[in-house]
């Protein structure tokens, strides 16, 4: 069973912090739907009969395309692959890009989960990071989604924004929680090279809250979310019980997924080999390959067992549940703790392991705060030593 | 048939940095057709990249020109270029000793600077005739009249008919050539007397070996002559003699009054000592020329490869630089923090910067350098005298009777409005005021005695910033003085980091310890645990800062399916860690070891 991801690389305009693949909507958007349909048809030939347990439309801002395009793409996926009857079918949207009618249409076509990008509830903060909407406009979109029949809704929030104080962040969490979405993603702002925000910060035109302030915000936000009934199941994801995002769990369980659309990434099993590939990230290049009836691949690499193992740890440790030791053993034929003994022991000394469930390799909250450092230790394990064992 | 000595003029050009020395030399070569105009590369004499970039001369060099004078005769000019920095004072004095005269170039917009003054005194001490020239008269802010008065008042030489020139445009440069013939005396010397030649510089060539750049005072030297170094007693057979025209050009012989080079299959410039006298082995001259000194390193620092695996590359690079730079010294040393490296000795801070820059640039090495140190004399209670150039080697305080540190006489010239702030700077750096002279109503010459270790870090930079760039500075080592010194150590997470230790005056230790600890707190990145940063004298902790433990080391961002990117990010983070030095359990960035110096103590 696989997850399917569809990338829609258009936005009204790009936010100042964003380094994802997206461009302001242009005339290519009219041809995007037919290109993706072509890619779906070619993929169906390559992976016939592959069962699908989740579909996720992400971006960019998927809802910037007409609802009929989005529905047509979903229909094509259903035609090409057997999509499970209870599959989770998510779509991301940003306020102002879709109204009640469009949402209603999506809901009827089978989309059953909506993820709304909000980031903050203070308009001054939204402006400062280049969001195109206000808090009021978000509320309107949220209400329209409810009216259209969406019951499973995620709202994205961010902390560490320029000008944001802890109170701003906690107010945003309270305000959003009062709407009772099923899921809240709480990301920290990552300053990425090449973004306008990055340039502003490096030239001193903009300042971000300092490291400690961001960490305080994050910690306080986590406590508040838990108190409001949203349990943390991944580094930055919180949900009401039973509403964890199944599509994202595909990633974190290191299961196969097929990415469609420009710049989409995939991990699939081909002829018994685990391969990872990415699509062309420029829209003209993506179109061009499809016009020639070729899959729009930009890069394709084989992932050997050793790398797969590391990726299973890297992704699994993001989950509060951790890495399932039995699943790991079944997949790789070795125990995760024994295989990474040195890294395990080192972090055991720091008290980073949560021993509450011996069936899982699980980090404590303190350990999760330093996940990258823990992973760097796991990365020290060399393939050659693994082979020699 | 050698050139008539009466038609030879040997001279140097003395000028402050940027006052136009190299430009003037270029114009002279152009006017005398020494180099065709199309072959002129800007500032021909400064041939190293670093020299050109910094606009300073590091090594001396020489060039021979032929000038057709208005009297109808052709004169041979030997221009000996001198290094332009206080670190190379000895080299300057030897280059001047090879000349009968000096052209003093003063910038018409700036006036005399401390460095110029020091070199003019060196020239006068060497009995040279000084020909003043006022440069940059084409600039709108030029004040040639004021500068001429300044030359007369400060240096005390007549300057009313000094040529007012623009080396840049070539204006009146011809006058300078004519005045050189009239003002600067011809060399005297007996071509038939036993050979007596002064080495004023040396150069290593892959094919010819170490070349001695010489001024012949008496006698003649030619291919086959067996020569002897009067400083070392070593003897060599001359394989080639030549002149600078401007590149090396072999000639039959060099005779009294002439300037040129001698090649004798000498393996290293360490054997051709600047200031040494060369004579014939079979018919030695009675007395060596005066002024020879063994070059002594004044500033030392540890130089380590950033990646320990490149130790051999660093050694090879140092060996190569040493071939051409006798004043560079180095020996193997081991640091607990930095591993295998070298203790290097330099003539001064500029010399140190140049060498480390060349190592990084020409040999593509990544280096970690430790705080520079001067040489201390340590007298122990059991009567021994130790010479310490590495703070780590300082014995326990309980074993030390007393210590001495090197002291310099410093001359600072400044517009009078900055006197207050500069005196404050000198006091802050343990300076002792000697005297102050008004050169003019608004320019002052300050004399201070300062400990060398106070001026090797950032004294010069502070001086420049306090005087908005107008003050100039010169110093010479005057000897050693007793001083209350202590070793200041730094502990990271309780472990001493030897590469950070410095020797400081005890009254300054607290302030310095606090400042460096604070700085370290900023440059050491947060790690998995809290890191106490402590400054200590012996077992006594005098300052403490804390590098807080990292709070979040995780990307709380959704990368969706882009696992490859996430992995690359981890690899990048790991690379970043590798560039750090492990001091016990603490990772320290390579540049931390130097950055702690940039402290205004």
What order do the strands of the largest sheet of chain B run in, or round the barrel if closed?
A: 10-9-15-6-7-14-11-12
Helical content of chain A stands at 40-55%
Secondary-structure-based class of chain A equals alpha/beta
Ranges of chain B where pLDDT stays below 50 over 5 or more residues in a row are 42-46
**Separation of termini of chain B?**
63 Å
Instruction: Using a beta-carbon cutoff below 8 angstroms, give the protein chain pair with the largest interface and the number of residues from each chain.
Output: A-B, 39 and 25 residues
Question: Uncertain runs of chain A with pLDDT below 50, 5 residues or more?
Answer: none
Globular, elongated, flat, extended or rod-shaped: what is the shape of chain A? Answer: globular
Mean residue pLDDT of chain B: 87
Judged by helices, strands and strand pairing, the structural class of chain B is alpha+beta
Q: Beta-sheet strand percentage of chain A?
A: 15-25%
- CATH first level of the largest domain in chain A: Alpha Beta
> Which topology of the largest domain in chain A does CATH recognise?
TIM Barrel
State the helical fraction of chain B.
Answer: 10-25%
Q: State the assembly state of the protein chains.
A: heterodimer
Radius of gyration of chain B: 27 Å
Quick overview:
The complex is a heterodimer of chains A (389) and B (601). Chain A has 389 residues and is of the alpha/beta class. Chain A contains 17 helices and 16 strands.
Question: Could you please describe the fold and organization of this structure?
Answer:
The complex is a heterodimer of chains A (389) and B (601). By secondary structure, chain A is an alpha/beta fold. Chain A folds into 2 domains: 2-250, Aldolase class I (TIM Barrel, Alpha-Beta Barrel), CATH 3.20.20.70; 305-388, Arc Repressor Mutant, subunit A (Orthogonal Bundle). Helix content of chain A is 43%, strand content 22%. In chain A, helix 14 packs antiparallel against helix 16 (371-379). The longest helix of chain A is centred in the first third of the chain and has 18 residues, at 29-46. In chain A, 45% of the residues are buried. The model of chain A has no long low-confidence stretch (mean pLDDT 95). By secondary structure, chain B is of the alpha+beta class. In chain B, 25% of the residues lie in helices and 35% in strands. Chain B has 14 helices and 32 strands. Chain B has an 8-stranded antiparallel beta sheet with strand order 10-9-15-6-7-14-11-12. In chain B, strands 20, 21, 22, 23, 24 and 25 form a 6-stranded antiparallel beta sheet that branches. A 5-stranded mixed beta sheet of chain B has the order 2-3-1-4-5, with helices on both faces. Chain B is globular. The model of chain B is unreliable at 42-46 (pLDDT under 50). Classes of the chains: A alpha/beta (389), B alpha+beta (601). The A-B interface holds A 5, 58, 185-188, 190, 211-212, 214-215, 218, 235-236, 248, 251, 257, 259, 264-267, 276, 278, 301, 310-311, 314-315, 350, 368-373, 375-376, 379 and B 526, 528-529, 548, 550-558, 560-564, 566-567, 570-571, 573-574, 577.
